[in-house]
Amino acid sequence: MYVSQLFAEGKLPSVPQDTIRRYRVPDHRDMRIEELAALTWIIVGPADHPLGVAGFRDVYCYSRSADVRQVEHIAGSRRAVFELIGFLIADAAVIGRRCVGVMHEGNAKMAALLGRMGCRSDRVQWESE
Questions:
Q1: Can you give the three-state secondary structure of 23-90, one letter per residue?
Q2: pTM above 0.85, yes or no
Q3: What pLDDT digit, counting tens, does each position of 7-32 carry?
Q4: What is the mean pLDDT of the chain?
Q5: Alpha carbons 39 and 108: distance in angstroms, whole number
Q6: Exposure class string for 112-121: b at 16+ Cβ within 10 A, else e
Q7: Does domain 2-116 have CATH number 3.30.499.10?
């Protein structure tokens, strides 16, 4: 509930608008409260004005035939994103899971960050237009 309050007040880090425009995200809209509540949230930084935020869920992945930690949303400063990804990977490993997420293929900065953290990109997500 706290995350939804921060979101409503505009204090929650989100995907920058230039990124949304650059990757031509169609029909962009904010999450609804039910969608916010469906995830587990981690906040980095001061509680009243976070530096970073991540939303994830532990699910069964049919394409991998395994339980995974699916990162649905991650945003914030570079340092906060680095800390969040590191925590999510380590925390998932404790329960025998891998972290998975989706990013745009042109997001070179995120790809480089993930590569430095020992992650690999070996799948392509498709989407209808």
A1: CCCCCCCCCCHHHHHCCEEEEECCCCCCCEEEEEEEEEECCCCEEEEEEEEEEECHHHHHHHHHHHHH
A2: no
A3: 777 777 776 666 666 666 666 677 78
A4: 82
A5: 26
A6: eebeeeebee
A7: no
| Contact status, residue 89 vs residue 117, Cβ threshold 8 Å | yes
Burial class (CB in 10 A: 0-12, 13-18, 19+), 7: middle
Residue 50 is classified by DSSP as: -
- Please choose, from the candidates 13, 75, 80, 74, the residue with its C-alpha nearest in 3D space to the C-alpha of residue 44: 80
Q: What ranges do the domains of the chain cover?
A: 2-116
Cβ–Cβ under 8 Å, residues 75 and 13: yes
Confidence of residue 75 (pLDDT cuts 50, 70, 90): confident
